[in-house]
Each structure stands twice: as structure tokens, then as C-alpha cells.
Amino acid sequence: MNWDDTPTDTAAGTEAGERLVDAGAAGEDQAIEAALRPKNLGEFVGQERVREQLDLVLRAARQRGATADHVLLSGAPGLGKTTLSMIIAAEMGAPIRITSGPAIQHAGDLAAILSSLAEGEVLFLDEIHRMSRPAEEMLYMAMEDFRVDVVVGKGPGATAIPLELPPFTLVGATTRAGLLPPPLRDRFGFTGHMDFYEPAELERVLHRSAQLLDVEIEPDGAAEIAGRSRGTPRIANRLLRRVRDYAQVKADGVITRSIAETALGVYEVDGRGLDRLDRAVLGALLKLFGGGPVGLSTLSVAVGEERETVEEVAEPFLVREGLLARTPRGRVATPAAWEHLGLRPPQNAGGSGGQQGLFGV
């Protein structure tokens, strides 16, 4: 099981954080997930290509007796970016310093962190794309030359004092790699993209987590939870803990397929991993607007949610599942959406023309 600590980058963070299928983590979740994290690359499940490539980078650095190259990890929340950063530090036998882009709003903030690093230390910078531009420009020199210029004073009397830094490894994580400027992206020696997990990989994650949590889970129970976890280990582990609660209170504590189905039904997570918000968006699109196309603002009003909540929280998964499409004319439901909700598209649906143009049917 591998996941990172970053809450979803959304304006609707509070509402998203309350969803069982949200990939962000906060509070008690972080403490529990920290205990379940793999401690080395051998324990890390999934991401085979990234893991193999990273293993070569770290082994070569250890053989040279040098610090590892700077690493950039990109991918959706909950896939293991923070976990990998901690593994990098562990594999290199180095301490790790953790901070985030939003916490660094001034170049002085970054200078203070960099100047306190020990030689070989790993600096994990989460949501690196949200760092301020002045700090970003300072980071260029720090990554390349292990040096920063600290400006003392203001106006004509300002003086730049060069500050030498010990060699360190920067591990940057981002959920939006496209927002990183090319000069910053090019300074990373290794870039790894984290993909969503296959159900079989999530089953391995769940069996390992169940063992650590001292929970008995049957293979079909793990398969049921994995199929509803949206390809994300963090969500899989969160669902596991909720199913564990149900099995403990309502059954004999053993997680079977039937127990998992019933428990996840209680928590309103359906067979494809859609929750109440996801189904509300699809339901409004199909029942009120005939499948679309419909504008985002109108759709948001129909479900009683903020525009950002629908766009940043619900839509990405619905699009990835092939249930909804974004078009220049608005949001359009796919035939799979009608089928999933058990509805029949009307003969003269307002969105039929948009769907025909999009899907050619």
C-alpha cells in the first residue's frame, strides 16, 4: 500500500476531505496510513517501472558514495509519492525533511530550509507546482550548483551574499506536472510518473494492510474492496478500515465478499467506486438534462454543489471511467453512464446530437 499525504488540490478541500473515496489524507488518516507505509522498495506494491528505475538510480548513487540525483514524482493523489520519498531517504540512509509548495511563499522561506539541510539529506517538496515564483527561481541555482544568493537590504543598497549548500537530494511531488516550468522540470535527474493501480495490485495492498491491522480478509473480500477503490491505494486502505468496522460490529470480524458488499453499500460506495456525489452529478446530467450537453455552472447548481467541487472532485474520476465527457458545448453523458444508473436514454434527448458527434453512434 502506497500513498502520499497531500490533500486533493481543490478549492473544495473541506467537502472533498469528508468523502470516503477522496484520495486526500488528513488528521487521523495520516497517522494510521503512516503506520502502514512500506519501508523499502521491496515492500512497495505496484509502479513496477518507476520502482525498477528508481532502484537503479539509488544503487548507483550508493556505489559512488554520492547523493542521489534530484527526483520528480508526478501523479494523482494517493498513489505513493510521499511513500517513495521516504523510501528514497531510507535507501540512502539519510534523514528527510518534508515541506510543501504552498508553505514556501517567499524566497527567504526556501533559503531558511536549504541552509539548514545536512549533507546528503533528502528534501521532500510536495505540490511543488504551487511554490511561489521567487522561491522557484532560487531553487534553480540550489539544485544545479548547491548555492543560493541571499539578498540583504533593499533598494540600491541591497547586497547578494552567496551561500554554499551541502549536496542534498530534492524529491519533488506534483499532481499537475504540466504546471511545472521547463527550467525546473529539466533540473531533475529522474522523473517518474505514478499510474493508477490495477485491481490485482490493490488486492496485494489490501492483504498486506489487513495483516498489519490484524484483520482477517478472504480473497473475494479483498477483490470486492479493490474493485471499488478507484485504482488508488489510499482509498483501498480507507475502505478496508471501514469494512473492518462493519465486520467487527455486525459480523464475526472476517471480511468476506458479502460483508464487503453490504458494508460499502452502507457507506454509499457502489460497485465501480462511485459515491453519493458522483451519482448525484450523473443523475442530474441524465434525468434533468437528458444526457447533456450542459454547462458546468448549470450542472453544479442542479446538484447543489460548488462549481469547483464538481469540476475538481467528481469529474476526473467520471471521465476516467468513461461515464462523462467534457466537450466544447458542455458536459455529456456517455452510453455507459445510462447503463450504470439503469436508465434508458430518451429518443429525442437534448444531448443526443452531442453524443452522436462525440462517439459516432
TrEMBL record:
**Major site of localization recorded for this protein:** cytoplasm
Native source species: Streptomyces xinghaiensis
Q: Name one GO molecular function term.
A: four-way junction helicase activity
Q: What processes does the entry annotate via GO biological process terms? A: DNA recombination; DNA repair
For region Head domain (RuvB-H), the annotated ranges are: 271-361
Q: Where is this region: Disordered?
A: 342-361
Q: Which residues bind ATP?
A: L36, R37, G78, K81, T82, T83, E144, D145, F146, R187, Y197, R234
What is the documented function of this protein?
A: The RuvA-RuvB-RuvC complex processes Holliday junction (HJ) DNA during genetic recombination and DNA repair, while the RuvA-RuvB complex plays an important role in the rescue of blocked DNA replication forks via replication fork reversal (RFR). RuvA specifically binds to HJ cruciform DNA, conferring on it an open structure. The RuvB hexamer acts as an ATP-dependent pump, pulling dsDNA into and through the RuvAB complex. RuvB forms 2 homohexamers on either side of HJ DNA bound by 1 or 2 RuvA tetramers; 4 subunits per hexamer contact DNA at a time.
Can you state the subunit structure given in the record?
Answer: Homohexamer. Forms an RuvA(8)-RuvB(12)-Holliday junction (HJ) complex. HJ DNA is sandwiched between 2 RuvA tetramers; dsDNA enters through RuvA and exits via RuvB. An RuvB hexamer assembles on each DNA strand where it exits the tetramer. Each RuvB hexamer is contacted by two RuvA subunits (via domain III) on 2 adjacent RuvB subunits; this complex drives branch migration. In the full resolvosome a probable DNA-RuvA(4)-RuvB(12)-RuvC(2) complex forms which resolves the HJ.
Reply yes or no: does the keyword ATP-binding apply. Answer: yes
The region called Small ATPAse domain (RuvB-S) is annotated at: 198-268
Q: Which GO terms describe its cellular component?
A: cytoplasm; Holliday junction resolvase complex
User: What EC number is given for this enzyme?
Assistant: 3.6.4.-
Q: Where is this region: Large ATPase domain (RuvB-L)?
A: 17-197
In the record's own words, the domains note is:
Has 3 domains, the large (RuvB-L) and small ATPase (RuvB-S) domains and the C-terminal head (RuvB-H) domain. The head domain binds DNA, while the ATPase domains jointly bind ATP, ADP or are empty depending on the state of the subunit in the translocation cycle. During a single DNA translocation step the structure of each domain remains the same, but their relative positions change.
Coiled-coil annotation: which residues? none
Spell out the reaction equation it catalyses: ATP + H2O = ADP + phosphate + H(+)
Query: Residue ranges of the AAA+ ATPase domain?
Result: 67-200
Localization? Cytoplasm
Q: What is this protein called?
A: Holliday junction branch migration complex subunit RuvB
Bias (Gly residues) occurs at 350-361
